[in-house]
């Protein structure tokens, strides 16, 4: 419409966005710049980081973390190892659990669906601190979990004090090696400051407990995504499979799963992004211990800066983590854009969909981030 | 649980197992409900244990973790909790959450509306910037945020707890997306009547955006009530701790000697109750929020 006063919208537009620009600028963009400087400087934590006493030291902090043999690099590698096993365990299991819950809830003859859905989703909206306290109690030496294990004659471990790796324990149990004296061919060679023995430890018992907690907490969110996906499954396709004589399992594997592939992709990639950011649980429950087996890059960064006063290194770890998550996010957006196009095609073909608003994947990321990490 | 609203019952159209199968046999039903009850127990029982344990004594909690009858029954844990700093933290959490939520809903709507509707130079650049900001994971901002709060001298103040959380890029995005679905003709009418841009926004557009506003309110409430990282780096003054920050300290000797499980359970339970109430009342908005992304697939 030409009747609008362009001048007025110009002013109003900037006025409307100015609070957002101000806050995001001061508390997000500027601090990132400041932290980037700190990661390249020798600032010790006292005084202003932007003063004459603070020197530019180039990539020294990054070298210490990624190249030079030493404690800093070793700690970062330990945190990478832990995160690797953490991701390897959490992402598939939470996806499978979420899908199982969704399929259960999608059953025709289920009564009280709302109740069950509420129960499964509820932990996702509860504070990670509250859930962590609860799990500290459940997994305590004489806690509920070990009591239940006791019914089956299993003597449960002292979960959060146990730094033994699961692969180590397994190898010990089947007689591959002895936990007490690991074979020299595994302890000798060292890659990036860690021996094979340490790299191939598997997640420690303590980390496994945290993994179970996170899987339990997050599955509910993803269950909702799967439920939405299941409702979009056209009945005709299902019926065609029935006519062809496919049994229930075959239909699940050949009809349902392929139909859900975009949702599975979304859940898996969100899982990858979320698991790299885990921090709250480590802060509340283990502080990285026992024996650094629950150390994650996010917690290591916090610890380096706030506990050890090594701000340059802490900031450098944060940027390394940022780079990793950025790669994961970009990959996700790229993969999903592909799926967007095909989803659009499907929609165009006239598959009936529920009337919903425009897709806002952000909310999922938001929900998931809150549920899992921060 | 919640008052069943129309939407509550409607969303799940059981399709997968529904097709052409006759009545499920007794055995199948048995297995199905068996599985369901197993999972329900897995998800509900921990909270029941939490509730019961908060009325136990320390030795009872440690010795009989699974028992559902406190022996002896005591409100000692709750008394300890209320005589600690917990009430202060609770008050702080309420203040911070209210301010953040009100601010976030207002400012994100304003910005979202401008990006969706107003024509001004730099709008597209701003939107690109917004998408970039959204890609920054909160967890890597801990150190940067501390640096800036310290630098501008508001570390250990209420504004430090509140202002940085007040704008959320994802919130702006949600509002922008929603405003774009409102027909433009509505605003034209108001504008022809001579209403100012803000007046049009406030009295005409905003009331139409109620579903998005409720979703954003709930996300903001839940987000700021459960936030931990930001409060760790914004203050180290126990008088300014929020619940998450204060209670997190319970595990690292904040309660003095012993494990004090009953107090920890009471603390965790009490901080869960406001979330639970909001969740139960507004449940369909929660599920909508999470479902909105599923359209992706």
TrEMBL record, chain A:
Transmembrane segments: 12-38, 84-106, 118-140, 205-227, 260-279, 311-329
UniProt xrefs under InterPro entries: ABC_transporter_permease (IPR051393), MetI-like (IPR000515), MetI-like_sf (IPR035906)
Family: Belongs to the binding-protein-dependent transport system permease family.
Biological process annotations from GO: transmembrane transport
Lineage start: Bacteria, Bacillati, Actinomycetota, Actinomycetes, Micrococcales
Source organism: Nesterenkonia aurantiaca
GO terms under cellular component: plasma membrane
Principal location class: membrane
Stretches for region Disordered: 343-374
Coiled coil: none
Superkingdom per UniProt: Bacteria
PANTHER family noted in UniProt: ABC TRANSPORTER PERMEASE PROTEIN, LACTOSE TRANSPORT SYSTEM PERMEASE PROTEIN LACF
Subcellular location(s) of the protein: Cell membrane
SUPFAM superfamilies: MetI-like
Residue ranges of every copy of the ABC transmembrane type-1 domain listed in the record: 80-332
Keyword list, A-Z: Cell membrane, Membrane, Sugar transport, Transmembrane, Transmembrane helix, Transport
Name of the protein in its database record: Multiple sugar transport system permease protein
Topology in the lipid bilayer: Multi-pass membrane protein
UniProtKB/TrEMBL annotation, chain B:
Source superkingdom: Bacteria
Transmembrane portions of the chain: 30-49, 89-115, 127-152, 158-179, 200-221, 261-282
Cell compartments where the protein resides: Cell membrane
One Pfam short name: BPD_transp_1
Annotated membrane topology: Multi-pass membrane protein
Ranges where the ABC transmembrane type-1 domain occurs: 90-282
Keyword Transmembrane belongs to the record: yes
One GO cellular component term: plasma membrane
UniProtKB keywords: Cell membrane, Membrane, Sugar transport, Transmembrane, Transmembrane helix, Transport
GO biological process, one term: transmembrane transport
Matching PANTHER family: ABC TRANSPORTER PERMEASE PROTEIN MG189-RELATED, ABC TRANSPORTER PERMEASE PROTEIN MG189-RELATED-RELATED
Family from the record: Belongs to the binding-protein-dependent transport system permease family.
Protein name in UniProt: Multiple sugar transport system permease protein
Organism: Nesterenkonia aurantiaca
